[in-house]
Design brief:
Strand content of chain A: 15-25%
Number of strands of chain A: 22
Radius of gyration of chain B: 24 Å
Strand content of chain B: under 5%
Distance between the termini of chain A: 62 Å
Oligomer: heterodimer
Number of strands of chain B: 0
Helix content of chain A: 25-40%
Largest sheet of chain A: 8 strands, mixed
Radius of gyration of chain A: 27 Å
Helix content of chain B: over 70%
């Protein structure tokens, strides 16, 4: 009897536990997991491929975070939604900065019609006007080592006194201080709506960095109220306000009714014909809400898109294979079954990938002919076609094609692929057909298309007798290996911090070795000198000559083999999404996209 | 009984010391530097040193270990290195979410699988038994991922029977859980039924069963009254020790269905070297495992009068 009673008790316990679990999630959210449509509210539904690290602009420096941060906050400048190549325009600034004759002082007039959004950190919950002191506060916070451990290097050494302040805060060592106690010599609020920034040298980099999400303007009251938890209560002057988020990183945003920016009235050639200027001059944002769940795997994202639950998704290799095809270099079409209802976009991204050799290695690091042979044998176009479904473009230098002074601008070409010539170089290097050459360790973080990439390189390099073996591991272990120089060959890459070629070319300098970026630890004095010169030389022929000489040095010594730049491909519904033009630089596409709610509700008829 | 429970709880202390020491030493001496991982491509020795200082990784090892124990005793593991979120919030929310995904199919699956195993054991040696054996083996041979991909595509997308992906807290979100539940039950089916069948068949060979049959009891009574009760001991051992792992959720399932559970959290923390999360989760597992082992022992005594707790 007793045993039977206990058994029932256990069952009841399990039963109650189950229902307690189902019922007791904390905040009941009224939102549906598909971004419920009422036929009136314009909801843009997009997919985030991973969770961002933080919604505090100064703590984040990763793409998934920035994707949401740019919608919640504003920086002083931004980039034009339609014009290409990239053109900087004012955002919280009233106009582009005025530079002094020496080019070392920037005076920035700020908008006087911008308010922070309403929030409980303000008196009476009403957002206050944005003023110049907010810029001083936000830039000082950007330099705070206890807040920003990721992105300060973007502006390091460029603003007078900012590095000193960062050092002083580091010495203070506890993160418990007031920014008033750390005035920055080069940062001054001239009046309520004017700011002056003194630079250590004449350069456009600070302006470019001031357009990035990491230098967004934040309200001091909210930081004071929430401290480290500010990231969970984000509030700025941005086009949207966070309505809901969860631990997975899903985000639901609602429109800021008082947003200050308007849709551009000019575009790139052909934009008007594509209907991209229909909304010219209209108040932004054009949609009322944004629903952005995190879906890390491609299958569910694609299936939900095809069901009409999303208005825009990017295509990874698997999704691309299912939905699209390459028709030419940088040109893509959706497959026939989708072409009537789905549009495709392709946008070149400001990133670049290359093969890096470990120069400390006694064989591959010391034998330039061997590296040249490999540089000549690597099939870069084949890699793009076979490993990344054609979603890339061959690069002859480490500078991506979206950035000025890329290989076309400087008239430079890498070795043409020539297996016979490479074999001759192998013989000259002392390893005819690879005889006597040990296997090289190709080290890579696991995940993605690593196996496919390795197999491709293994096959092409085997043609000249170079054998490689794969050593793959989690990213954390990969970094340890690279730092310890425990590799022979690896694939390295970089995404632009700011749109300047120097941001890429400087990655191969001796200085970059100490910064953890020059993986192969290559060093060349002339290259270093030229790199320093490019930092102080204004864009133009003279600077391009320097970049060309740097490219020639790389070609001659082959510490790396430039591979490709990424083309991002994605799809959106033809019938209900308007004004779509992928803006990878600012990531503020969602402000400009408009939705036809009636057609959106009808969905696809696939 | 109470003395036994108290003694077992006391025995958990050296186990926890061993576990914490092992985790601490492994991560300190063999793990990656979390500051280096967090900074990624922008890491410099100075930045790494500053971040390590901020996270308290430069303090003497003894101080760090004692700090770890303070966290355990106060159940406050601080904040994630990566996201800055409070771990207590992450665990509370994540564990409930994971449980909502794993517990219902676990309970339903265990009951269902036990019934099927009894049916198969009842018809032991028949065509039905052999046919079901083939089915269990086939079920066990298919990868978990294949079940997810296939059922998500066929049942959710093609036939529109379930939601494809997503998660909503609360009762409204039940529709999003049906397919993950079905997948978990399918995955559990093969190995569970096979095991339960073996246990039941083993019991049918016991002397007391022969005696019961000799007494003239019906086969039904023999199976339900005698065999099932005795078979519950190994079944219980198998199921109860699984319970702590239910809180850990399922990494693959959570990832494909965008469910914010502990499974995804733990795996991503290992990848990013988020030591506080790993520490917290490991301690949680160790404690839960010890507690549920104790529960199993207590239940033995409840189910089998021959077992005496002393």
């Amino acid at each position: 009897m007793i045993r039977i009673r206990r058994s029932r008790g256990f069952g009841l316990w399990v039963f109650l536990m189950f229902f307690a679990c189902v019922h007791s999630w904390f905040s009941a959210c009224s939102c549906s997991s598909h971004g419920g449509l009422d036929g009136k509210t314009k909801v843009l539904r997009k997919v985030l491929v991973s969770k961002g690290k933080s919604l505090d602009p100064h703590r984040q420096f990763d793409e998934p975070s920035a994707e949401i941060v740019v919608l919640l906050y504003d920086s002083l400048f931004t980039t034009h939604y339609l014009k290409r190549p990239i053109e900087f325009i004012p955002n919280l600034a009233a106009a582009m900065p005025v530079f002094s004759d020496s080019g070392k002082t920037m005076t920035i007039r700020l908008r006087d019609d911008v308010r922070f959004q309403d929030g409980d950190c303000f008196a009476n919950g009403k957002g206050r006007p944005f003023v110049a002191n907010d810029v001083v506060y936000s830039f000082t916070r950007f330099a705070d080592p206890f807040v920003n451990s990721n992105s300060y290097s973007l502006i390091e050494g460029l603003v007078v006194g900012l590095d000193d302040v960062r050092k002083a805060m580091t010495v203070k060592g506890d993160g418990q201080y007031k920014y008033e106690d750390f005035p920055v010599d080069g940062l001054k609020a001239i009046d309520e709506h004017t700011i002056q920034v003194k630079l250590t040298r004449a350069t456009m980099v600070p302006l470019q960095v001031m357009a990035k999400s990491v230098m967004s303007i934040v309200p001091r009251e909210c930081i004071d109220k929430y401290g480290e938890d500010f990231q969970f209560h984000p509030l700025g002057t941005g086009a949207f306000k966070l309505k809901y988020t969860n631990r997975l990183g899903d985000a639901w945003l609602v429109k800021n009714q008082n947003y200050h920016l308007t849709y551009p009235t000019e575009g790139a050639p052909g934009d008007a014909e594509k209907g991209l200027l229909v909304d010219a001059g209209k108040k932004l944002p054009l949609v009322d809400e944004i629903y952005a769940p995190v879906i890390e795997e491609s299958q569910p994202a694609v299936l939900k898109f095809l069901r009409g639950y999303f208005d825009w998704i990017g295509l990874d290799a698997d999704a691309f294979q299912r939905m699209a095809q390459k028709t030419g270099e940088g040109q893509f079409l959706v497959k026939d079954e989708y072409k009537d209802q789905i549009s495709i976009y392709a946008a070149m991204d400001s990133s670049s990938f290359w093969l890096a050799f470990n120069i400390q290695n006694p064989i591959i690091g010391k034998n330039v002919l061997l590296r040249r042979a490999i540089g000549m044998a690597v099939d870069r176009q084949g890699y793009i076609d076979n490993v990344i479904n054609g979603r890339g473009i061959v690069l002859d230098t480490v500078v991506p094609m979206t950035i000025a002074s890329n290989h076309k601008d400087i008239g430079f070409t890498w070795y043409a692929r020539n297996v016979e010539q490479a074999k001759k170089l192998m013989a000259e290097a002392g390893y005819p057909d690879g005889r006597g050459l040990p296997e090289f360790k190709y080290v890579s973080p696991s995940g993605g298309a690593v196996q496919r990439a390795f197999e491709f390189h293994r096959r092409t390099l085997a043609q000249i007798g170079v054998r490689i073996v794969l050593d793959t591991m989690p990213y954390s272990s990969y970094l340890k290996k690279i730092d310890g120089g425990d590799f022979d060959i690896t694939t390295s890459g970089w995404g632009a911090d700011y749109p300047d070629p120097e941001n890429f070319t400087s990655l191969l300098t001796t200085y970059a070795r100490s910064q953890g970026q020059n993986y192969g630890a290559w060093s060349n004095k002339r290259y270093d000198q030229l790199s320093d010169l490019t930092k102080v030389t204004p864009p133009g022929d003279e600077r391009n000559k320097m970049f060309r000489e740097m490219a020639e040095i790389i070609k001659d010594d082959v510490p790396v083999v430039p591979l490709f730049g990424v083309i991002r491909v994605g799809v959106y519904p033809k019938n209900w999404v308007r004004n779509f033009k992928r803006d990878l630089e600012s990531g503020r596409d969602a402000l400009h996209i408009d939705i036809d709610v009636k057609r959106q509700k009808e969905g696809f008829s696939l | 009984m109470i003395q036994y429970v108290i003694r077992r709880f006391l025995q958990m202390i050296p186990i926890l010391i061993g576990v914490t020491l092992l985790i601490f030493l492994l991560f300190t001496f063999f793990g990656e530097d979390p500051a280096r991982v967090a900074l990624g491509s922008h890491a410099t020795p100075e930045k790494i040193a500053a971040l390590r200082a901020k996270w308290g990784l430069e303090k003497p090892l003894v101080v760090q270990y004692l700090q770890f124990w303070r966290e355990i005793l106060t159940a406050d593991f601080g904040r994630s290195f990566v996201s800055g979120e409070r771990l207590s919030d992450m665990f509370k929310e994540g564990a409930l979410v994971s449980l909502s995904v794993t517990l219902p199919p676990f309970v339903m699956g265990t009951v269902l699988n036990l019934c099927v195993a009894m049916l198969v054991a009842w018809y032991r040696g028949s065509f039905f038994d052999r046919f079901m054996s083939v089915i269990f083996t086939a079920c066990m041979s298919v990868s978990y991922l294949v079940y997810i991909l296939l059922l998500q595509y066929v049942l959710a997308y093609k036939f529109d029977l379930f939601e494809i992906n997503g998660f909503i807290p609360g009762v409204k979100g039940l529709a999003f859980l049906f397919l993950p539940w079905l997948i978990l039950m399918t995955v559990q089916f093969g190995p569970d039924v096979r095991l339960y069948r073996s246990i039941l068949l083993e019991e049918t060979k016991a002397d007391y069963v022969r005696t019961a049959r000799a007494k003239g009891l019906s086969e039904k009574k023999v199976m339900f009254k005698h065999v099932l009760k005795n078979a519950m001991i190994p079944v219980m051992t198998y199921t109860v020790v699984e319970v702590p792992f239910l809180v850990m959720g399922s990494f693959v399932l959570e990832r494909y269905f965008s469910i914010p559970g502990i499974g995804d959290l733990l795996v991503s923390s290992v990848n990013t070297g988020d030591f506080p999360v790993i520490k917290g989760v490991t301690v949680m597992i160790a404690v839960a495992y010890s507690v549920f082992n104790l529960i199993t022992d207590v239940l033995y005594a409840a189910v089998d009068p021959r077992v005496k707790l002393s």
